[in-house]
Amino acid sequence: MPAKDDAAAEKEKNLELFLKVGLDERTAKNTIANNKVTANLTAVIDEAGVTDGCSRTVGNLLYTVATKFPANALVHRPVLTQYIVSSKIKIPAQLDAALSYFVNTGPQNFKTTEFEEACGVGVEVSEEEIKQSVNEVFEQNKSAILEQRYKTNVGDLFAHLRKRHPWADPKIVKASIDTKLRELLGERTAADDEKVPKKKKEKPAKVEEKAIAVSTPEQPAEEILNPYAIFPQPDENFKVHTSVFFSDGSILRCCNSKELLEKHLSVTGGRVLTRFPPEPNGYLHIGHAKAMFIDFGLAKERGGGCYLRFDDTNPEAEKKEYIDHIQEIVNWMGWEPYKITYTSDYFQDLYELAVELIRRGHAYVDHQTGDEIKEYREKKMNSPWRDRPIKESLKLFEDMRRGLIEEGKATLRMKQDMQSDNFNMYDLIAYRIKFTPHPHAGDKWCIYPSYDYAHCIVDSLENITHSLCTLEFETRRASYYWLLHALGLYQPYVWEYSRLNVSNTVMSKRKLNRLVTENWVDGWDDPRLMTLAGLRRRGVTSTAINTFVRGIGITRSDCSMIHLSRLEYHIREELNKTAPRTMVVLDPVKVVITNWKDDLIKDCEARKWPDSEADCYKVPFSKVLYIERSDFRLKDSKDYFGLAPGKSALLRYACPIKCVDAKDVVLAEDNETVLEIRVKYDPEKKTKPKGVLHWVAEPSPGVDPLKVEVRLFDRLFNSENPAELDDWLSDLNGKSKVVIPNAFSVPPLGKGVGVGDKFQFERLGYFVVDKDTTPEKLVFNRTVTLRDSYKSGK
Q: How far apart, in whole angstroms, are the C-alpha atoms of residue 98 and residue 89?
């Protein structure tokens, strides 16, 4: 008990400290739950000398330092904290530049003037300077702007100005560009809003001769392009961008009235407001990473905010476990919600609007069973209760609310268009009776709104400017706008994008839930799953995931399958910069150096980073060592560079060794399995073998090296698209998880290593310390191999 009390007291102390430096309570509590981030942040606060508190701006920058500072340059972290505390570095752009600078510098000394220049220290860009540069850029591009008018690519103008003033306030730059456009072009005309027809690309003629290499201009890297340029500004949401065609020949052209839009803009101040609305009934997967990138990313790029809204309309499916997980994983992905809300926060508003919908003649209480509703919708037949009097529906709906009608005996349905060509206009259900207490709202309600009724209204109530979702919701667009129009509510701009489909996995919640509940995998955070918790446990960083998603882009093409190798490319790119090197032997075979003294132990200098001689660690080298079994063959060949009888190989960081002949190989009774290889080392290093081997030696005579458990993960399914298969579970890869209980590691790997720490095991791949690690034994998960099978931009 005393140990638990001490731990609780320590958490309280750290929470108080994190609140003092300006972190909001949710971020502070999430940080406390992560021991590694807690340790980093307390160290950073101490280095900055702000244990008594600081401004929120400084605190948030210090939090970024604690979570993103490169491991290869920790010696410079105290210097950076002082730049932040003294307000020499005061905006995220400067901090990002500083972190990039230290990634490249590593532990080496740096020049202060060079660092300050790279981070814009002391640079103040006035509004007048920005306006002057805007005038100059417009003058240089005047003819093109006059020709293209409001179809001018504003992103290109931004790029010109960023080159001139990288530390300028982007909001002031945007405002100056908009002002200058109006001055030069006047008010927008109808022609400015016309869409430019896309030109069809001509197919090149087939040529039999060998193609001649042609030099082409280098395209911008996929990560540099601005994927959010396709979305309109909030003040442009008065245009018709969706039309709903009714069976009686009438057309609803969905747009906001001038009064509605002005009221909306007066509340939001013209800010972009988006929402990320997960259902709290499961763990988030990589598809949600794309949704977050779009929802949070657009808001961040436009200087707005993104709600994290829990779509908790089904009281039987929600769990606090999922709510806590979603909040924590959103934070881990690098996103900060503008507000955290629940659809259940608006249950009273939704109920009152449902009453109003009935009063306006657009909803009715129905008594059909679920099967009857399905049959009538398939036959495009009206419910027998569709035309009941409004007063009757009002009374019955009140009876539903008071719990006077049995569950399943009544629903509230929207009176839409049963003859429509759109199935999602067939009088969708707005409310059901469920005598189930709600995890968030308690037992106040026994009627609960449907997704189709609630989500568009809550979008409007929260003044969402851009309601963004995946393409399967496109057919619901008509219902979305019909309901808001029927209630006279503000209408957000709706846009759908393609789902993220990754090969060799499944991402439907139903299939993921089955994999977990039927124990095909080891929980929601199994490293083989494409859940974000699983990817994190596998050692994938949020930076790599976001870069991967950004590279895919925001498109409406819904038929593409993204190969897993493309994600792996971005994982390698990230870990190559951040994971220190070490040596581990997975399948060890014993090697005895016959010309080495029995009791001689020598320390070799091994590098943590390939390009840094300064950051090294010592590994013992002795008479007995171990190499990978696959690095030795009894029969040599020209394309083989490992060790073999009569052949030499170089032990990395040590010396060349040679197995003189087959007599030096000790075999087991089966006459095939190698038990021991006897070699001689070249003390003068005169031989220059092509093959380089990693190794682990006995730390002292007769003592085995450090034993660690290593888990090798591979694709969960054999097929690229297992979801297409009827018996998809039979496609599971039986070799997707291989456990090596007793791999050998160099001694330094066992010192000061914590869960989540990442390493490159030389010649093997990237690995991360798993949460199953104990004081007695380290456990590693393989994140990805070293092999690169995807090229950026392809």
A: 9
State mean pLDDT over 305-312.
96
- For residue 378, the model assigns a pLDDT of 94
Using one digit for the tens of pLDDT, what is the confidence trace for 269-299? 999 999 999 999 989 999 999 999 999 999 9
CATH code, 47: 1.10.8.1290
Q: pTM for the complete prediction?
A: 0.70
Q: Which amino acid is at 335?
A: W
pLDDT of 407 strictly over 70: yes
Asked whether residue 592 falls in the same domain as residue 678, the answer is yes
Q: Which of 168, 187, 206 represents a domain boundary (last residue)?
A: 187
Query: Cα–chain-centroid distance for residue 447?
Result: 36
Residue 694, in any domain of the structure:
yes
CA-closest candidate to residue 635, choices 626, 644, 625: 644
Q: Are 678 and 659 in contact (CB under 8 A)?
A: yes
**Tell me: the pLDDT tens digits for 45-84?**
988 999 899 999 899 999 999 988 887 677 789 999 999 9
* Residue 211, pLDDT score: 37
- The DSSP call for residue 266 is H
426's tokens: 């067939």
Total domain count, the chain: 4
> Do 433 and 408 meet the contact criterion of CB atoms below 8 Å apart?
yes
**Catalytic annotation, pick one of 20, 90, 509, 590:** 509
| pLDDT value, residue 213 | 40
Task: Render pLDDT for 543-592 as a digit per residue (tens, 0 to 9).
Answer: 999 999 998 888 887 667 899 999 999 999 999 999 999 999 999 999 99
Q: Which residues contact 552 (CB under 8 A, 6 or more apart)?
A: 290, 500, 562, 566
Active-site residue (options: 26, 499, 629, 652): 499
Buried b (16+ CB within 10 A) or exposed e, 379-400: eeeebebeeeeeeebbebbeeb
Q: Token pair of 617, please?
A: 């660690």
Integer Cα distance of 522 and 524 in angstroms: 7
How confident is the model at residue 227, as a pLDDT? 86
- Per-residue confidence at 749, pLDDT binned at 50, 70, 90? confident
d(CA 660, CA 648): 8
Taking the C-alpha atoms of residue 44 and residue 62, their distance in angstroms, rounded to an integer, is 7
- Beta strands in 355-476, from DSSP E residues, in sequence order: 363-366, 411-414, 429-433, 447-449, 466-470
Selected catalytic residue, list 117, 222, 279, 336? 279
CB 283 within 8 A of CB 532: yes
- Please indicate, yes or no, if residue 198 is contained in any of the structural domains: no
Which amino acid, residue 476?
Answer: R
Structural tokens at position 561: 């399958």
Nearest by Cα to 80 from 740, 133, 66, 365 = 66
Rounded distance between C-alpha atoms, residue 82 and residue 277, angstroms: 39
Q: Identify the CA nearest to 316 among candidates 434, 404, 458, 453.
A: 434
Provide the pLDDT for residue 505.
94
393 in any annotated domain = no
What is the 8-class DSSP label of residue 614? S
For residue 699, give Cα distances in angstroms to 622, 702, 706.
7, 9, 9
Q: Which two tokens stand for residue 229?
A: 């340029």
Q: Tell me 444's DSSP state.
A: S
Closest CA to 101 of 92, 110, 91: 110
- Answer yes or no: 499 catalytic: yes
645 plus 658 within the same structural domain: yes
Q: How far apart are CA 305 and CA 273, in angstroms?
A: 5
Asked if the structure places residue 152 within a domain, the reply is: yes
Quickly tell me which residue has 């209480």 as its tokens. 365
Q: What gap in Å lies between CA 578 and CA 99, rounded to an integer?
A: 12
Mean pLDDT score of the chain: 89
